[in-house]
Amino acid sequence: MKTEFLALLTKIRHLFGWLPGLLSSILMLCVAGLVAEMFSRFITKLILRIPGQKRGAFVRSFTMAMQRPVRIMLVIVFVGTALPVSGLPYDIMQATTHTLVVLFVLMLGYAAVVATRILSDAYLKRINGKDDKDDILLRTHMTQVRVLRRTTDLLIGLLTIGAALMTFEPVRQYGLSLFASAGAASLVVGLAARPLLTNLFAGMQIAMTQPIRMEDLIIINGDWAWVEEITSTYVVLRVWDWRRHIVPISYFLENTFQNWTHNSAALIGVVFLYVDFNAPMDRIRERLREIVHSAPLWDGKEFAVQVADCNAQVMTIRVIASARSAMQSWDLRCEIREQILAFLRDECPEALPRERVSHVASVSGLDVMGDPGMLSPPIRRPPPGAYPGPRNGAGGGGMGSTDGGQGHG
User: Fold this and answer.
1) Is residue 386 part of a domain?
2) Do 307 and 294 share a structural domain?
3) Residue 317's beta-bridge partner residues?
């Protein structure tokens, strides 16, 4: 078949024999490229007629996405096959052959990137289409596929560019000498590429170990943030007020952080109430139970009311209630606070915290201070002068008078 194709191209070249030699050769190569284009379109139409709702649809979409790089590579192959019979000068033929090789390598890398993206998107689409999908499992697969896809794109790009450059003789010799020496130059290149390699390997490790996933809720620098995008070198975090944190991907392997949705999106929210010692706990507990049980944001799993602490002024009531996600937990806690504060204000004002001031007055000052019921009981202190302490003069005088009495007798 190749011989027949070359014979056909030779006849076509002879048809343009009345033209200058270089122009007839170029026209023959254009005819070869046109034949490749027509052949590619014919094969594409045949593939697009494959029936089927699932596999057939995937084959058709894959063909539509790959038709451009495959068509260009097919044209390069046909033109390269026709070069020996084109009649071009040797130096022009060598330059054209090298150009076609470089273009073929680049298009092969581009086709590999496109194929990787199509396969990964089809896999993610199939995961999203499941009715009984698990949110954690879905986000795990999304993270793994996207991080590995970006890493694969980077590796394919590096290999493609490296293969294209190695077709040049000076570059190939430089590369061989560089690998042969493996001295100071390799050390400098390794040190210069250390941040890139660190983040690249960190991305692969994150894809495998899953400390973070797409749409995970984490706490970083005191902000709530959702993982919006994971690339091969950095992570984009979306804050609740639409700000974005751009963080190197190696940060999540070298520093501690909070991941609120690592195993499950459900969280237990905590509300603290500070009330007076006169607060009726039975009524407050019952009202909190009504609030939580009637709240649509409560998932029906965890609820408790306890006196967690107390000090000289107030006692602390801790209310816990679970919700399906962090944002629902936040809204549930806000709703609990609003309703219980309204209840305390309207129906249990004695439960509101207050400052206690004790006025202590002497017995003679009771009529001056006003109502005796507002005062604390008087403190019983010893009267002034009840115990002035030992008096040496009195003790010494007694002993002296005794001695003197004995002497006088």
Assistant:
1) no
2) yes
3) 273, 307
Instruction: Give me 306's structure tokens.
Output: 């306890």
| Distance set, CA 138 to CA 118, 214, 237, 249 (Å) | 18, 9, 19, 21
235 lies in the same domain as 296:
no
Compute the distance between CA of residue 73 and CA of residue 112 in angstroms, rounded to an integer: 12
> Helix 2-15 to helix 21-48 angle, to the nearest 10 degrees?
130
What's this model's pTM, rounded to 2 decimal places? 0.50
Q: How far apart are CA 132 and CA 348, in angstroms?
A: 47
Joined together, the tokens standing for residue 71 give: 């068509």
Q: Are 198 and 250 in contact (CB under 8 A)?
A: yes
Mean pLDDT by groups of 10 residues along the chain of 409 residues? 63 62 71 81 81 71 84 85 74 83 90 88 73 61 78 83 78 53 47 60 73 85 85 85 87 85 82 93 94 93 92 92 89 94 92 73 50 55 57 46 39
In which element (H, E) is residue 376 found?
A: none
Is 387 within a domain?
A: no
CATH of the domain at 283: 3.30.70.100
295 with 336, same domain: the answer is yes
Task: Find tokens 């219980």 and name the residue.
Answer: 340
How does DSSP assign 261-312, residue by residue?
Answer: TSS-S-EEEEEEEEE-TT--HHHHHHHHHHHHHH-TTEEEEEEEEEEEEE-S
| Proportion of the chain in helix, strand, coil states, percent, rounded to 5 | 60, 15, 25
**Same-domain status, 176 and 259:** yes
Boundary-marking domain end, from 310, 327, 348: 348
- The answer to the question of residue 259 being in a domain is yes
Together in a domain, 198 and 325: no
The tally of CA atoms less than 13 A away on the side-chain side of residue 125 is: 9
- Cα distances from 387 to residues 15, 111, 382, 384, in angstroms, run 141, 106, 9, 8
Query: Do 81 and 196 fall into the same domain?
Result: no
Return d(Cα 344, Cα 275) in angstroms, integer: 9
Range of the domain at 283: 267-348
What's the structural domain count of the chain? 3
255 within some domain: yes
| C-beta atoms surrounding 179 within 10 Å | 9
Q: How far apart are CA 225 and CA 217, in angstroms?
A: 6
Domain boundary among 348, 378, 403: 348
The position carrying tokens 């070869």 is 32
Look at the alpha carbons of 24, 25, 27, 28 in this order and tell me if their dihedral is positive or negative.
positive
Amino acid at 387: Y
